[in-house]
Design goal:
With 313 residues, the protein is α/β, with parallel strands linked by helices. The protein folds into two domains: 146 residues, Rossmann fold, CATH 3.40.50.1370; 158 residues, Aspartate/ornithine carbamoyltransferase (Rossmann fold, 3-Layer(aba) Sandwich), CATH 3.40.50.1370. The protein is built from twelve helices and nine strands. Strands 7-6-5-8-9 form a five-stranded parallel beta sheet. A four-stranded parallel beta sheet has the order 2-1-3-4, sandwiched between helices. The structure holds phosphoric acid mono(formamide)ester and norvaline (NVA).
């Protein structure tokens, strides 16, 4: 057990910044808050009297709603801010915007294109900055997904997680960082062209807990053969529309469909961060099957983020 006071005031930009013990503390806090909600103890005043800026440069359904509701349920005041409605849209710098936020709010949650914009904001603001998705990572999704894996499998240590599709995807990266830190095994199945670069894969291996293994392949059936979890995400992420045709045709053999699921163990769980492009990276019969836990994942975003905010803000 670690002293969670060391997490107060920290930024949450990438899962890789946190130790196994720190990620476990956040997951435990999330589980605790989730079980309290189930017992009817709804409002926990972790954020009483605190205001949190929710800045979005890209569209969002789950992240936007779960942070808004989560801040409210912890007793705080969420302020949704659309990038283009702020002076940012007219050219005010990210650094000056971050300094301005710091005059008013106690926490900043931001979804941006460039990850460096989050780093800039974190540098200038004393208030903790939480990454609500950037082009390179989605750590809140990873925490929610680890909570779901723990609930479905009982533990992450030793779990075999196979991500099939875009191997350099922001969701895949954060999931791999968290799973390997927490002692699970990660397999990434992707066309070579879209696999994460070698230097990043080496970083992932350095992060790994003792005994956890990283495998990369361009054979989706081999990837899922021993998988407890089969995960996919869209082939065309926000901001990649110019490459849409090329991405869709190259990744077609990586679709998660009933034939791929038949190559996996019978009880393996299907996961997707959502939104899904049904008929592209996943078929209806898989996402709507009994093996699919996508709605548990969506719900766990709320609990995981409450755990993160309770400890950091
Ligand atoms: N999974 C996820 O982050 O969804 P949104 O883009 O709807 O927030
Ligand atoms: N990889 C996707 C995730 C959306 C939640 C994107 O960045 O668009």
């Amino acid at each position: 057990m670690i002293n969670t006071r060391s997490l107060k005031g920290r930024d949450f930009l990438v899962t890789a910044d946190f130790t196994k013990e720190e990620l476990t503390a956040m997951l435990n806090k999330a589980s605790q808050i989730k079980s309290e909600v189930k017992c009817g103890n709804y409002l926990r005043p972790y954020l009483q009297g605190k205001s949190v800026a929710l800045l979005f440069q890209k569209p969002s359904t789950r992240t936007r709603i779960s942070f808004d509701v989560g801040v409210y349920q912890l007793g705080g005041h969420p302020i949704y801010l659309s990038w283009n409605d702020l002076q940012l849209g007219r050219g005010e710098t990210v650094a000056d915007t971050g300094r301005t936020f710091d005059c008013y709010v106690d926490g900043i949650v931001a979804r941006v294109f460039k990850h460096t914009d989050l780093e800039t904001m974190a540098q200038v603001a004393r208030a903790p900055v939480i990454n609500a998705l950037s082009d390179s990572s989605h750590p809140c999704q990873a925490l929610g997904d680890c909570l779901t894996i723990m609930e479905k499998l009982g533990k992450i240590e030793g779990a075999n997680v196979a991500f099939v599709g875009d191997g350099n995807d922001n969701v895949c990266r954060s999931l791999a960082e968290a799973v390997m830190r927490l002692g699970g095994n990660m397999t990434i199945a992707s066309p070579r062209k879209y696999m994460a670069p070698d230097d990043y894969l080496s970083t992932l291996e350095r992060l790994a807990a003792k005994g956890s293994k990283l495998t990369t392949t361009d054979d989706p059936k081999a990837a899922v053969k021993e998988a407890d979890v089969i995960y996919t995400d869209v082939w065309v992420s926000m901001g990649q529309d110019a490459e849409a045709q090329e991405r869709k045709s190259t990744m077609k053999p990586f679709q998660v469909n009933s034939s791929l699921m038949a190559a996996a163990p019978k009880n393996s769980v299907f996961m997707h961060c959502l939104p899904a492009h049904r008929g592209e990276e996943v078929t209806d019969d898989v996402i709507d099957s009994r093996n699919s836990v996508v709605w548990d994942q969506a719900e766990n975003r709320l609990h995981a983020q409450k755990g993160i905010m309770a400890l950091l803000f």
